[in-house]
């Protein structure tokens, strides 16, 4: 079964053991285009039965065949070849990701797809840094360590960055020598299905990367509980992450959990306000706010509060919202109807709580199809309001005034989350002091969402544990064996 999305053709069957196949129970699911609400593709809809077959294929590929025989050098070369193959298929991947998620094509071309290739290149470079150590003991013994892969890794990903969030797991998992079974998000599985074919074409042996589309409670839960899966790499909401960590504990598999966020973006009175307002826009509205690391809480020191709000509202008034396929579009639709309804509910909650609606708050004039919502700005938001504490995951930013550094830090740290935070100031001592006190896995100073492959990301508190990217991201997929030889 294949489907044509503009130019690219995506095979919509499951990808198990190196080949495409329909779901065991013969089920399919229609995927909608979030910009038009029209059917975009009909994908095979897997079940626990398909998942078991995929784990068996991944297990076989880990134990025998060409994959475990590759030297580090050969594995490194293969990852670099995969990066090149992603570049060669860049336009197809960019179009598929844009149509499936509703992401502006300028972003999938400029960020999502190039970043995916670069992450494979980065981990391709790290493969040959994997090394054990020799340990000294008595004169007649030899002790050394080997860094070994874990086995079959289960990956479960959310709907907002489908390509990047699997590549963040797949590249280090493969670099370490594991095999992978992936359950993509229910509504946005198309780029993973295409990626599996691209990797096979680049020479990845059969069974090393398997994709089973399907729902969370059946297919995802089976992956978390499967006894032959040695690690679960999960990205998604904190509620699902907690449930899955409990399930995974039944087989003592390792878990990394990249979960939700409610990032505080702090503007001090001495900041460059032009830059801060522009960055506040990007922090809050990138990917239509469907960004775990979004700066959805803007905290502004009172002397520059009104001016910052005015500048940000001025930017929102001129942002092109609309067709994700138009290279000039900056804000696309929400990725699915449930997400749009969630945003609408939170807008109603904010109004009922007494927050002041400064911009947006409803549909986009002229866009009567698709899951569009106007970029929305609430001011006079008190830290204890639900709109300031709970993750909306949409184009909604709240603004809260503060007076002192201490107050800013206290408000920033007052939610259950701890994924990302940021601050804007011209005072380098204040920057370091405040950064050290923010409870977040990453703190950006005078910028936001500046990512490097070398730089680990991950959560504090309810935003999860484990790290992706950087050398730390590779560590998550390795275990240590100690070998002791008595040479007497
Ligand atoms: P979600 O938790 O609803 O779903 C994520 C994945 O888990 C999907 O594939 C889903 O099918 C699966 N799932 C759902 N219920 C399951 C169950 N009972 N058992 C097994 N699998 C199950 O999240 P979402 O709505 O797709 O994504 C949005 C969330 O993801 C937000 O909270 C966002 O902050 C978070 N996120 C975090 C990061 C990060 O790096 N920390 C990145 C992106 C998104």
From TrEMBL:
Keywords: Oxidoreductase. Gene3D superfamilies: Aldehyde Dehydrogenase, Chain A, domain 1, Aldehyde Dehydrogenase, Chain A, domain 2. Signal peptide: none annotated. InterPro entries: Ald_DH/histidinol_DH, Ald_DH_C, Ald_DH_N, Aldehyde_DH_dom. One of its GO terms (molecular function) is oxidoreductase activity, acting on the aldehyde or oxo group of donors, NAD or NADP as acceptor. The keyword Manganese does not apply. Residues 30-483 form the Aldehyde dehydrogenase domain. Pfam families: Aldedh (PF00171). Belongs to the aldehyde dehydrogenase family. This is Aldehyde dehydrogenase. It comes from Actinospica acidithermotolerans.
């Amino acid at each position: 079964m294949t489907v044509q999305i503009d130019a690219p053709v995506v095979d919509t069957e499951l990808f198990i053991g190196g080949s495409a196949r329909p779901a065991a129970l013969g089920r399919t699911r229609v995927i909608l285009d979030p910009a038009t609400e029209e059917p975009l593709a009909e994908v095979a809809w897997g079940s626990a039965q398909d998942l078991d077959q995929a784990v068996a294929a991944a297990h076989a590929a880990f134990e025998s065949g060409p994959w475990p025989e590759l030297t580090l050098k050969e594995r490194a070369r293969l990852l670099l070849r995969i990066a090149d193959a992603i570049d060669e298929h860049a336009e197809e991947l960019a179009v598929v990701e844009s149509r499936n998620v509703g992401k502006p094509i300028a972003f999938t071309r400029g960020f999502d797809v190039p970043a995916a290739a670069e992450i494979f290149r980065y981990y391709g470079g790290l493969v040959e840094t994997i090394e054990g150590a020799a340990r000294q003991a008595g004169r007649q013994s030899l002790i050394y360590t080997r860094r070994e892969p874990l086995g079959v890794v289960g990956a479960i990903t959310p709907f907002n960055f489908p390509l990047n969030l699997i590549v963040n797991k797949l590249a280090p998992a493969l670099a370490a020598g594991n095999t992978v079974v992936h359950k993509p998000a229910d509504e946005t599985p198309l780029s993973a299905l295409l990626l599996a074919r691209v990797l096979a074409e680049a020479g990845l042996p059969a069974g090393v990367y398997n994709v089973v589309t399907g729902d969370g409670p059946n297919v995802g839960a089976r992956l978390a509980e499967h006894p032959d899966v040695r690690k679960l790499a999960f990205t998604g909401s904190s509620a699902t992450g907690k449930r899955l960590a409990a399930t995974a504990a039944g087989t003592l598999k390792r878990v990394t959990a990249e979960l939700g966020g409610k990032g505080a973006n702090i503007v001090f009175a001495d900041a460059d306000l032009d830059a801060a307002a522009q960055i506040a826009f990007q922090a809050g509205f990138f990917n239509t706010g469907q960004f775990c690391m979004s700066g959805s809480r803007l905290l502004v020191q009172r002397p520059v509060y009104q001016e910052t709000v005015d500048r940000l509202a001025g930017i929102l008034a001129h942002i092109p919202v609309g067709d994700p396929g138009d290279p000039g579009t900056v804000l696309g639709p929400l990725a699915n109807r449930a997400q749009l309804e969630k945003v609408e509910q939170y807008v109603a909650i904010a109004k009922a709580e007494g927050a002041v609606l400064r911009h947006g708050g409803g549909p986009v004039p002229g866009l009567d199809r698709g899951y569009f919502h106007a970029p929305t700005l609430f001011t006079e938001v008190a830290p204890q309001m639900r709109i300031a504490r709970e993750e909306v995951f949409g184009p909604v930013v709240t603004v809260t005034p503060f007076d002192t550094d201490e107050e800013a830090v206290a408000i920033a740290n007052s939610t259950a989350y701890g994924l990302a935070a940021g601050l804007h100031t011209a005072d380098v001592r204040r920057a370091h002091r405040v950064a050290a006190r923010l409870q977040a896995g990453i703190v950006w100073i005078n910028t936001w969402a500046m990512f490097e492959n070398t730089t680990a990301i991950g959560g504090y508190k309810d935003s999860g544990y484990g790290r992706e990217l950087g050398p730390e991201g590779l560590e998550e997929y390795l275990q240590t064996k100690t070998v002791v030889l008595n040479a007497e």
